[in-house]
């Protein structure tokens, strides 16, 4: 009968280990934050460089799953192609084995010193970034402490003959062992936790090296199933990465099953220590598998693109504002900018629809303008909330200025939509009351609409390209709008004096000019917000 103390040590150790990995990954991700974009951009089309970068990042944050989730952001933001992302993902698999190496070295004795230093740094630091370093060290401490409890629990477990017999019975055959390890990895959502437990079982003498290798193969399969599970929940670029990740590990499982005896011999010559043999086998599996797979990346990507084309990706409104990207502010900011560009396009459609209502009598478009205004309100709320969450992260000066810029742009876009709705409603009233302006007044309004359309086109391009030159072009056009509006007011007053224009027409014309001028002013504000971004470039 297994003692309760043994069960508590193993379960509690796994809990501490998982929490340590989480704490470590989250805080180091915050610290690295804006640097990750520059690091991942270096992958370009060099698969070996991508492999090294993926290995390095995952070795630091201790979570291959987190690395892959970060890749989603870079893919959806257009910063990486799928072909460039795959080597980074393969590198993440290799980097994820570092924790197993730590376990085999039995460095749990450093748990308390790391906890102590981490807590002291967190308590006495005033800067957020140093607090993050402190929490990362606390994460390392919990990780090592969890290892200690797991090793202690498995040692106690080795004294129970029934438990040892049960574990040996299912782990001695390749298929049951691999499936059990895959299920455990999927349940724990951590390949590191499962592989550390395998190392602990070996070092406690409960299983031999061959069953341990069967389990290690299952751990890698479970890691793919974990990512596939997330893919089912989020139908975006992750689904394509998940499929490639699954193909990669199924390919590895097939190859290493065929050549298992060679794999076994390679593992036992790497060290005299059986725990090190298992850890080394885990690392070697992923390195060899990645090197074999790399030449086939272009072909695999081509096949995946063919059967899972981008058109099938779900396009739910603002789906790309993923909370998991908040710890990489540069990526989150790119996604927010993408949302702002989408909002600007809607505002442009509202402007065009308002023009068509007036000049082409398309009254039916009024409902569409109202629907778009409601959509802008909804997007404003979501984007503003996301911007606030980004502002809580560690930001450099460049990103801080971009946050400031985006907050102002979102507010101006909401005001733009409000004024366009007001213009649309005024135009509908004119049509309903059969009020018609003079030919000269209509030409003046046509000129203003034309300038505003040019400005909105430039707003979209300046935001998409982060283009300072285009921002200054918007400012020049807004000055022209002010001149036309001023001239229109002057001409309008002249018509009033000559009694060519009625009071009712005057009221509507004045309100239209006022709203159209405000639309130009808010477009001008957006241009200045773009200019502000370049203050620290």
Description:
The chain is mainly alpha-helical. It folds into two domains: 4-311, no CATH class; 326-536, Methane Monooxygenase Hydroxylase, Chain G, domain 1, CATH 1.20.58.220. Helix content is 82%, strand content 0%. It is built from 22 helices and no strands. It has helices at 4-32, 34-41, 47-61, 64-76, 82-95, 98-105, 111-124, 128-157, 161-171, 174-188, 191-203, 209-233, 237-258, 260-268, 274-293, 297-307, 329-359, 365-391, 397-432, 439-465, 468-497, 503-532. Helix 6 (98-105) packs antiparallel against helix 15 and helix 18 runs antiparallel to helix 19. The radius of gyration is 31 Å and the shape is elongated. Residues 311-315 have low confidence and may be disordered.
> What percent of the residues sit in helical stretches (DSSP H or I)?
over 70%
Topology, number of strands? 0
Structural class: mainly alpha
Largest beta-sheet details: none
Low-pLDDT runs of 5+ residues are 311-315
Spatial extent as radius of gyration: 31 Å
How far apart are the first and last residues' alpha carbons, in Å?
A: 67 Å
Strand content range? under 5%
Total DSSP helices: 22
Element order: H for helix, E for strand: HHHHHHHHHHHHHHHHHHHHHH
Number of domains: 2
Q: Mean of the pLDDT scores?
A: 85
Q: What does the overall shape look like?
A: elongated
Q: Keywords, please?
A:
single chain; 537 residues; mainly alpha; Methane Monooxygenase Hydroxylase, Chain G, domain 1; 2 domains; 82% helix
List the helices and strands and how they pair.
Blueprint (H helix, E strand, L loop, with lengths): L3 H29 L1 H8 L5 H15 L2 H13 L5 H14 L2 H8 L5 H14 L3 H30 L3 H11 L2 H15 L2 H13 L5 H25 L3 H22 L1 H9 L5 H20 L3 H11 L21 H31 L5 H27 L5 H36 L6 H27 L2 H30 L5 H30 L5
Helix pairs in contact: 1-8, 3-5, 4-5, 5-13, 5-15, 6-11, 6-15, 7-8, 8-11, 10-11, 10-12, 11-12, 11-15, 12-13, 12-15, 13-15, 14-15, 17-18, 17-19, 17-20, 18-19, 19-22, 20-21, 20-22, 21-22
């Amino acid at each position: 009968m297994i003692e309760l103390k043994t069960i508590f040590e193993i379960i509690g150790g796994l809990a501490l280990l998982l929490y340590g990995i989480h704490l470590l990954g989250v805080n180091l991700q915050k610290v690295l934050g804006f640097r990750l974009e520059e690091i991942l951009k270096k992958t370009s089309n060099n698969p070996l460089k991508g492999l090294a970068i993926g290995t390095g990042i995952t070795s630091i944050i201790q979570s291959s799953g987190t690395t892959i989730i970060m890749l989603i952001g870079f893919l959806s933001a257009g910063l990486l192609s799928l072909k460039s992302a795959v080597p980074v993902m393969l590198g993440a698999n290799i980097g994820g084995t570092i924790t197993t190496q730590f376990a085999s070295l039995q460095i749990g004795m450093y748990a308390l010193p790391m906890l102590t230093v981490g807590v002291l740094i967190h308590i006495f630091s005033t800067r957020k970034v140093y607090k993050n370093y402190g929490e990362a060290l606390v994460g390392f401490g919990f990780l090592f402490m969890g290892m200690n409890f797991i090793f202690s629990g498995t040692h106690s477990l080795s004294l129970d003959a029934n438990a040892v017999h049960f574990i040996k019975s299912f782990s001695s055959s390749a298929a049951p062992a691999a499936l059990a390890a895959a299920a455990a990895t999927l349940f724990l959502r951590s390949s590191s936790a499962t592989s550390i437990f395998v190392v602990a079982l070996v070092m406690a003498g409960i299983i031999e090296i061959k069953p341990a290798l069967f389990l290690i193969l299952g751990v890698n399969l479970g890691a793919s199933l974990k990512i596939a599970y997330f893919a089912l929940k989020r139908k975006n670029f992750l689904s394509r990465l998940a499929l490639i990740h699954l193909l990669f590990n199924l390919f590895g499982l097939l190859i290493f099953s065929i050549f298992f005896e060679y794999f076994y011999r390679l593992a036992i010559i790497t060290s005299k220590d059986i725990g090190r043999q298992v850890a080394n086998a885990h690392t070697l599996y992923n390195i060899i598998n990645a090197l074999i797979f790399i030449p086939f990346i272009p072909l695999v990507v081509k096949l995946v693109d063919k059967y899972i084309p981008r058109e099938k990706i779900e396009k739910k409104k603002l789906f790309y504002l993923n909370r998991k990207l908040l710890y990489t502010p540069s990526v989150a900011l790119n996604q927010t900018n993408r949302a702002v560009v989408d909002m600007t396009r809607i505002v442009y459609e509202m402007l065009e629809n308002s023009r068509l209502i007036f000049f082409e009598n398309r009254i039916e478009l009024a409902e569409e303008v109202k629907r778009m205004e409601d959509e802008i309100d909804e997007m404003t709320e979501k984007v503003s909330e996301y911007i606030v969450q980004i502002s809580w992260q560690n930001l450099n000066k460049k990103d801080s200025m971009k946050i400031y810029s985006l907050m102002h742009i979102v507010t101006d876009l909401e005001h733009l939509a409000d004024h366009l709705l007001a213009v649309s409603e005024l135009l509908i009233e004119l049509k309903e009351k059969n009020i018609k302006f003079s030919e000269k007044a209509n030409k003046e309004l046509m000129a203003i609409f034309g300038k505003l359309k040019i400005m909105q086109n430039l707003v979209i391009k300046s935001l998409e390209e982060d283009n300072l030159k285009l921002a200054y072009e918007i400012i020049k056009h807004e000055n022209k709008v002010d001149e036309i509006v001023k001239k229109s007011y002057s001409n309008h007053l002249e018509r009033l004096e000559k009694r060519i224009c009625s009071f009712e027409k005057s009221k509507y014309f004045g309100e239209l000019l006022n709203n159209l001028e405000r639309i130009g002013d808010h477009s001008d504000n957006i241009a200045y917000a773009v200019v502000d971004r370049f203050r620290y470039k």
